[in-house]
Amino acid sequence: MTPSVDTGGHLAVVTGADEAAGHYASRLRASVTPVTRRLAALAGPGTERELGEWRDRFNSLDDEAADDVVGSPFFTYYWLQLLDACVRGDRAFVAAWSRDLGRFLLVPHLRRNSGSRTLLRLPAPANEIHLPGLAAHFTSTEPVDAVSAGPDGDGSCRDGILRLPEEYLMGEGADVLGCVRRVRHHVIADSRIEVSAADPWIRRHLASMNSKPPMEGYPAPDLQPLDADAAQLTDIDAAYGLIKTVWPGLMPELDSYVRLFVPYSSAFHSSFAEACLMRAVFLSEAKHPFSSTVYTAEHLLHEAAHLRLTLIEELDPLVTGAIDTSFASPVRKDPRPLSAMLQTVFAFARIAAFHRHAIEAGRSTEHEARHAESVGLLHKALLEVESDTSLNFTAAGQRLWSDMWAEVEHA
What we know:
The chain is an alpha+beta fold. 50% of the residues lie in helices and 16% in strands. The strands form 3 sheets. Strands 1, 2, 3, 4, 5 and 6 form a 6-stranded mixed beta sheet that branches. Helix 12 packs across helix 14 (395-410).
C-alpha cells in the first residue's frame, strides 16, 4: 500500500517542512559514500586516495552544508554521468571525472576549516575554473592543473598550481588577482537564483540534446547557451519580481526548487527542465522575449512546477494505471504518456493559479486573457487524463487532482 504523502497546501505548494525535497537531499547525501567507493574500485588506487579525502571532507559537513552541495543542479548531472560510466566500465572517464568532486566541496570545506590549505586537482589543465555553488567562475591567463587554496595566495600560477586566498574564492576583494580574474554571475534580485549558461557542463548537455534526432512533427533541436545581456537580466528579474508580488506564498518553494536559471537561444524551443539537472530551469526567447514579463514568469513557473512534481513522485506515484495509454496534450503534437500528462496538468494548474492571484491583486489587464487560456488548457488536459477509466489515484494524488479541478471551477 502506498503511504500517504504530505504534498503541501493548495496545488502542493510547500507551506512547511518539505518532505519531498528532504527525501531527495537525504537520498543523495547517503549515496556519496557508497558511490565514491564504487568509483574508486573501478578507477584504481590514485583515484581511491583522492576520492577518499574529498569523501571525508563531505562527511564532515553539517547537514545544511551537505544538502547545499548535493542540491546543486550540477551534482545530479555529475552523479549520473559517473554512474553511466561505471555501467559501461569506462575507467578513464571515471578517473578523470572523479576529480570534479572536489570542485563541489572546496568552498564548503574552506568555510568549515578556515585557515587550512587545500589542494584541488582539476581533471585536466584549464584556463577556466568553475566551482558549483558559487555565482562566479575564474579565468586564468595560465593553464591550471590544480588550485591551492588557503589563508594566503597571490593569484600566481607556478608549475600549473594556482595559489588563491580563501577570501578571494568567497568573493571578497578586487576581481583581478595576479593571473586570475573572477567573473561574477548575475543573481536574481532578492533571491539566490543564479542566471548563467557559462558552465561547460551546460554546453555539454545542450550539445547532447542537439545530437538527438528530432521528435516527430518538430524541427531538429538547435539549443545554444546564451550570455544574457544587461537588459535581458533586468527583464528576468522583473518576471521573478512579478511572481513575488502577486503570489508571495509560493516564494519559499520557488527559491528552494530553482537554483539556476539557464538562458539559451533556439528558433522554436521555449523552455524545459530535466531531472538530470534538478533545480535548474532553461528558458529562451523563442516564443516571447524576456521583456514579456508575464510570459517569462509563466515559463519560470511552468518549469519550476515540473521540478516540484518530479520530487513528489519520488515518494508517491499519485496516479497508477494507463501503462500503455497515450494521451493527446493540448499543447503538443506528439502523444504523451501518463507521466508527461501529469506534468502538463500540474504546470497548467500552477499557471492558472498565478494569473488568478494576479487578478485578485488588481493586475487584470493582461492576466485575465492568460487566465482564461490557461484554465481552458487545464480543463482539456484534466478531461483527457480522466478519459482512461483504468486510472487509480493515491490519497495524495486525489488531493492534488481535486486542487487542479478547483482552479477550473474557480474561473
